[in-house]
Amino acid sequence: MKKIAIAATAALFAIPAAANAQAYVQAQTGLDSVSVDGGSSEGLTYGVAAGYDIQARDALFFGIQASVSDSTTKDCVRDVAVTDDKLCVRSGRDLAAVARIGTNVGETTKLYLLGGYTNARVRVTYNDGTNKDSAGTNLDGYRIGAGFEHDFGGNLFGKVEYNYSNYEHGFSRHYALAGFGVKF
């Protein structure tokens, strides 16, 4: 009987929490600025994200979000070892899992902070005119950021967000994102 009472009490707390929960998916794009030991290159980032927010109090919410994105950011230099050779570093896909905490500003707007884990792919190619070599590696890091989200009506929303990511081996990244999505 004691176990049934505990389960019923837990269910009473879980049902309102689930009723206040909101799942979403979004498409996102923006500026990607990748830095390596002081030098930086800019490009375009694009991808998708999905998440789940839970309304904790009238103005406070918590959430989780996972995202996958790619980037056009690439930097090349010539004449590295021999005349007319080419060395390029390209940032590739980026995977992230973050937690969000924020506040509702009115009925249609949210302000939030985020933080979590990110993993980026970097590919290096070298072409000396005769041979072309390529190698890639994954870089682990952390991400922090802040954002503004606005509901347009129905289930549609838009957001703007800034993210900073710091990776292994001196790599870091700044994202300025705009997103458009739907809530379920």
From TrEMBL:
Organism whose genome encodes this protein: Novosphingobium clariflavum
InterPro entries (UniProt xref): Beta-barrel_OMP, OMP-like, OMP/PagP_B-barrel
Superkingdom per UniProt: Bacteria
Family membership noted in the UniProt record: Belongs to the Omp25/RopB family.
Protein name in the entry: Outer membrane protein
Signal sequence, start to end: 1-23
Subcellular localization: Membrane
A Pfam family of this chain: OMP_b-brl
Domain Outer membrane protein beta-barrel: 5-184
UniProtKB keywords: Membrane, Signal
UniProt keyword Aminoacyl-tRNA synthetase present: no
Coiled coil: none
